[in-house]
Write a structure and sequence with these properties.
By secondary structure, the chain is of the alpha/beta class. It has 3 domains: 64 residues, no CATH class; 58 residues, no CATH class; 92 residues, Metalloproteases ("zincins"), catalytic domain (Zincin-like, 2-Layer Sandwich), CATH 3.30.2010. It has 5 helices and 11 strands, in the order ββββαββββαβββααα. Strands 1-2-4-3 form a 4-stranded mixed beta sheet, covered by helices on one side. Strands 5-6-8-7 form a 4-stranded mixed beta sheet, covered by helices on one side. A 3-stranded mixed beta sheet has the order 9-11-10, covered by helices on one side. The chain is flat, with a radius of gyration of 20 Å.
Length: 235
């Protein structure tokens, strides 16, 4: 998939992250805690964006302010099928991450102030580092396994800390995967990987694409797609 992303600081609506998506058929606006995300189809103009923000900006900002961000405290844990993380007070001077095979411990000093915003940012950065480590450890290998199983081919695989997309595939066959995928059950991870592999054959969401994906999933992909929508990247 060919995409071009840009970030602007709007005087009224704050940070706006715009993605130009060659496959998009309509404009999509989403509110996240860090920004308003807009996906644009090829024919959209700057005027279209301004009109959409005028019409929906207030509602998006309201949604943005209501999105909870879980405060990371001493008893914070993540328990997923292939990823787990816990915090532990240790004789360390600063945050230290240890672990392997998907089980991680984030060590913190007794003097750490969990109420400090800078501390919260450091904790999140450390957790994201663990997610990225696990994603690189598992996702490329699983993608290669599924590609061989289905006799499909891609150029390369990259891991990104994407909050807005579970995965994407470029016209050159480069597949990008979100590190947050490791928070999903394995059947949904496989669904996303198969979805991107299908884009190496069908660079669209045509009936042929969904038929191919149904074949690879050995079931209707609609139910898996609906289940995937219940997950997000907030922790």
């Amino acid at each position: 998939m060919q995409q071009k992303r840009s970030t602007i600081l709007h005087p009224e609506w704050g940070t706006i992250i715009i993605t130009h998506n060659a496959r998009a058929r309509r404009m999509i606006l989403r509110a996240r805690r860090d920004a308003i995300y807009i996906t644009l189809p090829p024919f959209a103009t700057k005027k279209d964006v301004e009109n959409a923000l005028t019409a929906h900006g207030s509602k998006l900002k309201e949604q943005q302010s209501n999105i909870p961000e879980r405060s990371i405290q001493k008893r914070f844990t993540i328990e997923a099928e292939s990823f787990s993380l816990r915090l532990q007070q240790s004789p360390v001077r600063s945050l230290r991450l240890t672990g392997s095979s998907g089980a991680y411990t984030l060590h913190y000093p007794a003097t750490l102030n969990f109420e400090d915003e800078a501390t919260q940012q450091k904790l999140r950065s450390a957790i994201n580092a663990a997610l990225t480590h696990r994603a690189k450890e598992t996702l490329p290998a699983r993608l290669a396994q599924l590609a061989a199983q289905h006799n499909m081919h891609y150029t390369s695989c990259t891991i990104r800390s994407s909050h807005t997309r579970w995965g994407s595939c470029s016209s050159r066959g480069t597949i990008s995967l979100s590190s947050y995928l490791v928070l999903l059950p394995q059947q949904l991870i496989d669904y996303v990987l198969r979805h991107e592999l299908c884009h190496t054959v069908e660079m669209n969401h045509s009936p042929r694409f969904w038929a191919l994906l149904d074949t690879l999933c050995r079931t209707s992909s609609k139910a898996l797609r609906a289940e995937l929508k219940s997950y997000n990247t907030l922790f």
